[in-house]
């Protein structure tokens, strides 16, 4: 559960930074930036209409605010942090400006230690950082 609370906190800060841009004038964008949510059933929206999953709700807020971001949902129900680490290279085949990682619930349900989840989530974020051009 601590991992989920930490992830929720990160999402809150991410949303605040996006919404803070609403109050400032936005110059004409040179290109649309891509935000990808990589996660488990919470991201995929298991049991919800696709438009009700939280990445879709964020995408709607971003669109209504006129922000230059495209939001993509790469959630997979039942995914673990190790599963996401195995598929992160597939997700990163396209240019991504922001990668939001929401994982750990299924690791906890399987009784995996938090250290395992931290290590594999860190591996996913490290692969994203390696792809960023300086």
Question: What's the gist of this structure?
Answer:
51% of the residues lie in helices and 14% in strands. It is an alpha/beta fold and 134 residues long.
Structure description:
This protein is an alpha/beta fold. It has a single domain (2-22, 31-131), classed as SGNH hydrolase (Rossmann fold, 3-Layer(aba) Sandwich). The protein has 6 helices and 3 strands. It has helices spanning 2-20, 41-44, 54-65, 81-91, 105-109, 114-131; strands at residues 33-39, 69-75, 98-102. The protein has a 3-stranded parallel sheet, with helices on both faces. It is globular and about 45 Å long.
Descriptive keywords:
134 residues; alpha/beta; Rossmann fold; 3 strands; 14% strand
List strands and helices in order, with pairings.
Layout: H1 2-20, E1 33-39, H2 41-44, H3 54-65, E2 69-75, H4 81-91, E3 98-102, H5 105-109, H6 114-131
Parallel strand pairs: 1-2, 1-3
Helix pairs in contact: 4-6
């Amino acid at each position: 559960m601590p991992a989920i609370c930490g992830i929720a906190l990160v999402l809150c800060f991410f949303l605040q930074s996006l919404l803070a841009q609403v109050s400032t004038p936005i110059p004409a964008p040179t290109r649309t930036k891509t935000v990808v949510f990589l996660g488990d059933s919470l991201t995929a929206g298991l049991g919800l209409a696709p438009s009700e999953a939280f990445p879709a709700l964020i995408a709607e807020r971003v669109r209504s605010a006129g922000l230059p971001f495209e939001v993509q949902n790469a959630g997979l129900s039942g995914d673990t942090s190790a599963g996401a680490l195995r598929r992160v290279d597939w997700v990163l085949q396209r240019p991504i400006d922001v990668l939001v990682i929401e994982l750990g619930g299924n690791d906890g349900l399987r009784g995996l230690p938090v250290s395992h989840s931290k290590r594999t989530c860190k591996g996913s974020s490290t692969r994203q950082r390696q792809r960023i051009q300086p």
